Amino acid sequence: MTRKKSILSGLLVMTSLVYTSCPAWGNSETASYTKTDFAMDTVVSETLYTSGEDITDKLVSTLKDIETNWLSWTDEGSQIYQLNQNAGSTQEVSDETAGYLQQTFALSEASDGAMDPTMGKVIRLWDIDGENPHVPDEKELNSLLEDVGYEKITLDGDQVTMSEGVTLDLGAVGKGIGCDAIKDILEQDKEVSGAIVNLGGSSVMSYGQKPDGSSWQVAVTDPRDTEGDYLGVVSLNGTEFLSTSGDYEKYFIEDGVRYHHILDPSTGYPAISGLTSVTVVCSDGLDADGLSTACFVLGREKAKKLLEQYNADGLFVDDSGHVYLTEGMKERFQLMKDTYSVSE
C-alpha cells in the first residue's frame, strides 16, 4: 500500500497563489502584509492591502476559532460535536449555525445528495486521511450507510432535529465557511482595499482590488503532476471564491487501485465519475466548497446543470487529459500544460 497527501509543505503556499508582495504602488498610504500559518488542518497564506493596521493575525485566529468551536467533531466545545452527541433529539443552535446548516442542506438537495453532510462515520471508516487507510469491510460499510442521508436532519428556525445514529460532518464545506467569515471581517474594515487568502491550495478567497487594478491570479494544480508544473491559472475579479476538489489531494493505493477521499454517498466508495479534479468559482465560499465536491461526484454533464443553478463557473479535468470549461470559466482560465487539451 502506498499513501500520499499532495499538500505537504510550504510549496503550495509559495506557488499555488500568485500575487505580489511589493509595497502598493500608486498609493503610498497603502501597505501590503503577508502571513503564513496553519489552520483547518492546512497551510494558510494571506496577502492584505490596507491603509490601516495589519489584521492577518485576526483572520487566522477566526479560522482556528471556527474549526475548534464550531466545525470540530472531536472538540467537546464544538456545536457540531454537541449535535452529534445528542442525535435523536432536538437542539437549539445559534442563528449563524442555523444559517450555515440551511445553506448546506439546500446544496445537498440541489445536488441530489452528491454532497451529503452525514457521511462522517463512513469517512472515518475509510480513514484515508488517518494512520490506517484501508478498504473497509462491505458489511460494516453498508451498516453505516443506513445512517447516511441529509434528509435525516430537519431544521426549523434554530431547532435542529437529527435521527438517532446520524452524524453531522461539515468537512466538505468547512473551508468555505471559513472564507465567508473572513469576508465578513474584511467588509467591516473600511481601510482594507484588497486581500487574498489561500487555504491549502484547495480554497481561495479574493477580496476587493489589487493596488494595480489587475485580476487576482490563482494557479490550479495538475492532478497528475502535483509537485511539478501547474495545470493553469484562473483569474478572480473583486470578491470571489474558488474551490478545487480532486482525487490527488488525499488517497491511498491498494493492489494498484487508487482510493481517494471524495466518497459517493450513494455507494460509500470513492466517486467514479471520470474526473480527476473540479474547480469552481462563485460568489460564496460555502457554495464554492460544496459545489466542487458535488460536481466531482456527479460527473461533468450533471455538474454543469448544478453550476447553472448557482451561477457558478466550472473547470473539469478528466482522466484522459481533457479540460472542459463552462462559458464563464473560458474567460478566466489560461492553460499552462501542453500535456492537456481544452475540449468543447
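the 2nd protein, sequnce then structure:
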Amino acid sequence: MSTSSTPNFSSVITALRFPLILFVVAIHLVGEDLRLPQWGTSDWFYLYTTEFISHSLARIAVPMFFFISGYYAFYKKDWSQRSVWTIELKKRVKTLLVPYLLWNSLYIIILLSKTQLETRLGSGPHDPFYITSIPEFLSYYWNEVIVYPLWYLRDLIVLCALSPILYRLITWSRGYILLPLFVCFLMAWECSFAEFGFGTISFFCFMFGGYLGIKQIDPLEKLQRVKYIAGLIALATVFILPLLSQWSGYKTVESIYILTGSASALLLMQRVGRRAPEVLQRLSSLNQYVFFIYAVHTVLLVNWARGIVFRIPALREEGSGALLGYFLIGVLTLAFSFACYAVMKKVAPRVLSILSGGR
C-alpha cells in the first residue's frame, strides 16, 4: 500500500546526510586501490581497520545519496508536465550545475597558481599542474573531474537532466525497468556510460529512489518487514568484505552490502530518532555543512591534513601509530572544512551560498 512520505522519513533522511558525508570523507582517507590484510603481518590490524571503514562500511554513502536524490526528484512531481520539469531543471542549475562548475574551476585555478608560484620562487613546482590543450581543460569537467568526488554531482546533473525521460520510462514500464537494472547492479555488471555521465550504480539507485517517489512509498514502512534479516546480512557482509578484495565475487558481495547496509542505516537512524530525538535534531542541524564538506574536503584539505600528520614518522602508514594517524587525518580534514565554512560565512556569505548551491 502506498503512503505519503511521512515527516518521520524526511527527518531521518535529513539527519542521515551528515553521517553519510563522514563516510565520503573516510573513503578519501586512503587510496582507491583495495588492499588485502594478511593475517600474521605487522600491519594486519591497520589494513583491516582502514579497509573496513574506508572501502567497506562507507560504501553505502554515494549510492544512498543517489537514492535520496531520485526519491525527492520524483516525489509528488509529474515530470510529464512541461511546467514541472522546466521549474525543476531551473532549480538544478542553481543547486547542482553552478556549484559543480565553480568548484572545479576554483581547484584548477588553485593548482595552476600553485605551480606558477613555486616556479617563480625558484624552488621547483611540487606535483606541477599544467593545461596544454582545450580538450584537456574540458576533460577536467567531465571524464577526469578535477575535484574527483564531484563525479557524483556530474552523474546527478545528467540524471536530473534526463528526469522527464526517466519518469516516462518508470511509469510506462510500471517499474519493471528496475528488474534488469537490479540484476546488473547485483551482479556488478558495470554498464558504465562515462561519456554520458553515469554508471550502473548511480542509474539503478536513482531510478529505484525515483520509483518509490512516484509511488509515494515510505521506505521505512516497507523495511520493517525485513529489518532483522537486512541487519544480519549487512553485518555479515561488511565485516567480511575487507578479506575478499582479491576474490572474483567481491563486487557482488559489495552490492549485497550496499542494499542491506543502506536499509539498515535508514532503520538505525529511525530507531535513534525514537530513542533519542535530541540526537536526531543535532544531526539535522549539521545538514547545513554537508554539501560544503563534500565539495571542499579534497580541495587540498585532506592532503594538508595528511602532510601535517605524516610529519611524525610513527603516524605514517608504515609506523607503529599508523591507525592513530589515519583517524587524525580524518579529524583534521573535517576541522579544516568547518574552519573554511566559518570563515566564508563570516567574510563572504553570498559566495558561500552560491558555492553550496543555495543550501
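The chain is about 70% helix and 0% strand. Residues 15 and 284 are 4 Å apart (CA to CA).
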